[in-house]
Amino acid sequence: MKTIGIAIVGCGGITLQNHLPGLALCPDVKVTALCDADAGTLARARQQTGVTVTSTDYRDIICRDDVQAVIIATPNSTHAPIALMAIAAAKHVLCEKPLGMNAAEVRAMAEAADKAGVRHLTAFTYRFVPAMRYLHHLVQRGDLGTPYHYRSCRLQDWGTRNVGWRQQKSLAGTGEIGDMLSHRIDFAHHLVGPMKRLVANLMTLTPVRGGQPNDTDDWAAILAEFKNGASGMLESSKLASGVNESWRSPDRVEINGSEASFSFTTSTWNELLYGKVGGPGLNVLPVPREFWTVPGSPRDPTVGDPLITFRYDQAWEFIDAIRNQRACSPSFHDGLRMQEVTDAALKSAATGQWVNL
What is the mean pLDDT of residues 189-216? Predict the structure, then answer.
């Protein structure tokens, strides 16, 4: 396979910011078809990319002979049917998170992809932050020792503005827990391992956003116990007034173990905070240059805003996995593990009880 043809289903902000620039760095890759249910969004994407094959119906483009892989960036409720059709047509699939509306739906996607032998990637984009990649390496190397505590806190100020389909449970499934806490749930699995049980709470503090009803959560928190005995605390909010948003707002992960503690902040992409047991406190630990990009990525980490451009390595991971016939990381199975935690958190919030995983 020399040139890999890509069909993109969903041409909104994530596609323009992450997917298209990332694909542009990959040699012998061509975006051959575009789809968006909104004709205006589709027209803008067509004008920006020059792609002439477009449709408002994904069924028109997925099975084309010049499409070898599909990127899905649509409302969450549509992920599963689009992915399952692409998999049935033997197309490789990169899908935005959360992969589906519940674990049963996501499990069907993962099992179908495995059976079909196609590459599958869950868009846990923050896995590609250099500091997170280095932190995972250090934990795997044993520098942390036995994991004791994991905590993450993601705070943004979204106010009461309209966020489109993301404020409709029928289309999004959940609000903040699926939108932002999902990444931090994946971090927990990536750094510590699977959870054993949890108790959670969700709150909807803005029943109206931008003049339209909102029935999704603005704030979510999980208290977890991992299978290895470590504890976990995860919080995420859209309503932390005055803290800004995106990479300009607080986004922190800390992990404590028997030998050391590490702290990771997205905004400081090229450093960690590190302290050894019995030491005076946390000090700056620079991220070595070899972790600034994923292995083989052609991206120059000194070009552009590094808080945006790290996201382009996700496309490289997908394309490289296709070419080398290897598993993607993170895969649909990582997306399934996150969804299982989300389902358990929703059950816990509804019942006020601990839920076993």
Answer: 98
Spelled out in words, what is the top-level CATH class assigned to the domain 126-295+337-356? alpha beta
Note whether 236 and 181 are within 8 A (CB): yes
- What mean pLDDT comes out for the span 233-242? 98
Q: Kindly report, as residue ranges, where domains of CATH 3.30.360.10 are found in the chain.
A: 126-295+337-356
29-35/4-9 β-pairing: parallel
For 324, the token pair is 């080398």
Residue 33 confidence (pLDDT):
98
- Whether residue 1 is predicted with pLDDT greater than 70 in this model: the reply is no
- CATH for 4-125+325-330, options being 2.60.120.200, 3.40.50.720, 1.10.530.10, 3.40.50.620: 3.40.50.720
- CB neighbour burial string for 290-321, b if at least 16 within 10 angstroms, e if fewer: ebbbbeebebebeeeeeeebbbbbbbbbbbbb
Kindly report, residue by residue over 98-155, the tens digit of the pLDDT. 999 999 999 999 999 999 999 999 999 999 999 999 999 999 999 999 999 999 999 9
CA distances from 78 to 95, 170, 345 (A): 11, 11, 22
Helix (H) or strand (E) holding 332, with range, is: helix 332-351
Question: Cα–Cα distance between 195 and 192 in angstroms, integer?
Answer: 9
Closest CA to 261 of 165, 161, 145, 345: 145
Count Cα atoms within 13 angstroms, Cβ side, for 318: 34
Q: Which residue is associated with the tokens 């006020």?
A: 352
Please give the pLDDT value at position 247.
83
